Amino acid sequence: PPVLRLQGIERHYREGAGRLSVLSGADLSVSTGEIVALVAPSGAGKSTLLHIAGLLERPDKGDVLIDGNSVTAVTDADRTAIRRNKIGFVYQFHHLLPEFTALENVMMPQLIRGLPRKEAATRAEALLAYMRLAERKNHRPSELSGGEQQRVAIARAVANAPRLLLADEPTGNLDPTTAHYVFDALAALVRASGLAALIVTHNMDLAERMDRRITLSGGKVVEL
Ligand code: ADP
Ligand code: ADP
């Protein structure tokens, strides 16, 4: 089965006396090793879709399946566990902890999960090396460039070996050359690790380099 499957997702918000239908029958599958670009104008429902796929929000109707298992009838506690174990998030702004080094930031999700410090450090070092940041591991976020900060954030997002990577404009804050470099690092990691990735972007050059492009139109997912 695909890593992520959305089936007939509906999400409505109350709007005065009426309601605003943000998603109205959205269907989407993302498979292992696949990178899907989500390109749509502001207000189209991209964040809502990412939040539902990331189990941060429940749909009003429809089903979310992770690795073929429906998470609809699952308790909030179990959804949190699935999110921690199976889903990594990258945002436009890195949200790294400023008082910790790059290495410590990448270790953090593993320590929270209860892994021994030595094991967490070994994996964090491997991921930082993979992101070509071996020489930067003892730097704090403020001592890193924007592109380096985002590569640390990507390493942190995959530290717990998730199945699905969700990214909201991961290169939106970077100049075009750096954006391409960061995207290449992300794509290499996704493909090498057999992750599935759904990436919101406004950068059409980058979207063209992903495996598929989708948009949201009338609350439905449409292939571009
Ligand atoms: P995008 O990420 O594509 O800009 P969003 O998913 O953030 O779109 O929002 C889609 C629409 O839903 C927007 O019109 C927004 O104002 C509305 N919306 C989002 N979240 C809420 C909410 N919690 N309550 C009411 N309306 C919301
Ligand atoms: P370990 O030796 O602890 O198993 P690895 O060095 O094999 O760690 O990899 C650490 C993580 O880095 C992998 O689990 C994977 O998610 C990611 N990774 C993916 N491809 C590579 C690669 N070619 N080299 C190193 N790490 C990779």
Q: How would you describe the overall organization of this protein?
A:
Keywords: ATP-binding, Hydrolase, Lipoprotein, Nucleotide-binding, Translocase, Transport. Its EC number is 3.6.3.-. This protein has 224 residues and is of the alpha/beta class. The protein is built from 7 helices and 10 strands. The strands form 2 sheets. Strands 6-7-8-3-9-10 form a 6-stranded mixed sheet. Strands 2-1-4-5 form a 4-stranded antiparallel sheet, with helices on one face. Helix 6 (176-193) links the parallel strand 7 (164-168) and strand 8 (196-200). Helix 3 (102-112) packs across helix 4 and helix 5 (146-157) runs parallel beside helix 6. It is globular, with a radius of gyration of 17 Å. The two termini are 23 Å apart. Residues 13, 20, 22, 40, 42-48 line the site of one adenosine-5'-diphosphate (ADP). The site of one adenosine-5'-diphosphate has 10 residues, from helix 4 and helix 6.
Supply Rg.
Answer: 17 Å
| Strand percentage | 25-35%
Structural class: alpha/beta
H/E element order: EEEHEEHEHHHEHEHEE
State the low-pLDDT regions, or none: none
Morphology: globular
Distinct helical segment count: 7
Biggest beta sheet summary: 6 strands, mixed
Determine the fraction of residues in helical runs and give it as a percent range.
Answer: 25-40%
Bound molecules: adenosine-5'-diphosphate
Query: What is the number of strand segments?
Result: 10
